[in-house]
Amino acid sequence: MEAVPRMPMIWLDLKEAGEFAFNAAVKKSAVSVPRDFEGCSTLRKYLGQLHFLQSRIPMGHGQDAAVPVTWTEIFSGKAVTHEDIKYEQACVLYNLGALHSMLGAMDKRVSEECAAGAFTYLRDHFPHSYSVDMSHQILSLNINLMLGQAQECLLEKSMLDNRKSFLVARISAQVVDYYKEACRALENSETASLLGKIQKDWKKLVQMKIYYFAAVAHLHMGKQAEEQQKFGERVIYFQSALDKLNEAIKLAKGQPETVQEALRFTMDVIGGKYNSAKKDNDFIYHEAVPALDTLQSVKGAPLVKALPVNPTDPAVTGPDIFAKLVPMAAHEASSLYSEEKAKLLRDVMAKIEAKNEVLDQFMDSMQLDPETVDNLDMYNHIPPVLMEKCAALSVRPDTVRNLVQSMQVLSGVFTDVEASLKEIRDLLEEDEAQERKLQELLGRVPPAPGSPPGLAEVSKECSKYLELHEKASFTNTELHRAMNLHLGNLRLLGGPLEQVRAALPTPTLSEVLQNLKRILAKVQEMRDQRMSLEQQLREMIQKDDITSSLVTTDRSEMKKLFEEQLKKYDQLKVYLEQNLAAQENVLKALTDANVKYAAVRKALAEVEHKWNTTVQTLVASYEAYEDLMKKSQEGKDFYTDLEGKAAKLLERARAACQASEAHRQQLLER
Q: Entry's PROSITE patterns (predicted)?
């Protein structure tokens, strides 16, 4: 796998700058940066100097020195203006992340961790209401995409370095985890509406990569099983890798040639591994092949992280060009308070993320999706593929009658041919019997000269026609059997839609299922409330600016002021703690409901299987109609031709038999 062609990566466009009353030369150099690492350095320096400027001059929203700042929003192309220097900082930070993503997508394939760090800092330290492309949902999506691509790069290097199979499997599994998070965001209706037309392209690529890297993970789990001489496990892991790769191939339609090359290469590797492993196990090792769900799942190993951004790092920003404007005491105190807020947010987020991880793993293991847990909606209507067939037959009302008539005509011609051939055979047998009697009477002497020669030719030709008839008779029988098999379905499809719907199996609702859906709704309600409380906390922290209070507070009173100010978050923290504490009870109730749901799940699966089988059978009957008509016509043509030949042969047989009888009479009269 170390030689596998590289998969393409997603990179983000840079925002375009508009109006900002700042030094024109500085502004131009900061927003029109080269697309390389020097451009990243320029953006970092500019970001730092903006931070230093903001700490001394009141240029924030609603402050005395605020000036209009204009940037173009990525997805709509519209100019967005805010009188807030933090908007300028946010846009520069966005461009820093976008530029790193662009560089990471190039051949060097580095820099994704830097991009993730820039977007994380932007999400956690700036308002999300500036523009759509910097909303919390979009930034979270960008972060997961960049972390996934960073982990993907690490996976490439691990395979090139021939790292241990189990480690490579865990690294690949983590790629899948990051992309699953990104895919959840892409499937969110609000995020999709924000992204616009690129959402479908990103979603297709990410979904394909989820299956692709899941296949890579199971390939290396199979390699580990091979190293441990667990040959049954090796077969099932390679089989799973092959299944997942086939799913990736299905999702890769329309992707560039580089993707197709990578998939073909990987198919050669996995297909070869699976075929070899299965053959060896079948003929040599004879180990039982376990079910995949009985084996321990591959836990991802997150070996990449969002690199932190420090806007005031002198090694990055260079000298503070505004150092002499105002004292830094108030700014330093504000920075300390910001760190206290950040610490509070980190503590809360650690608890939230831990609970979310448990919840996600639990729901994945349960394989319960509130939207599809029962699939009852599918039974409320006739599927489109079946509606299409019903519609087609509705404009061809004579379909069944035409088929029956065609088969009746075929049967008639078939019967006529059979009767003619039987009569010929009877004539020949009767002639042969008369010939034997004559020979017995005359002492078994050879036939006298002048006996009619036509009977041998008739007999030979009759045998040929009988052989053709016998072969065609089997085909004719099969054709009638097929017609009888499909005739009822065709009548159903051509009848009222209510009858078609009634022919499709439907499940019955149960109290167990309703209870399970109610608890699943409770899980979603808990998720939504948690996200809402987290968002409220973030927004509250973003708006919490106590600089004006710090200016008039003695340094010795700073700690007390911080403690008093941080109390405003206590109520939100209580709500979050209650939400997190409720998770254990909700999951316990869900576990109990799921145990009871097992029988219902099996029944629903059986109904769904019957439903799909019925639909497929009806569609197959419709699609078989044209073939039946064609074969029926071919049968009629064949037997019509054979009928003509048999009729002529019958006339010849009659004439030959009459001539033979006359010849025998002559011999008897001698």
A: BRO1
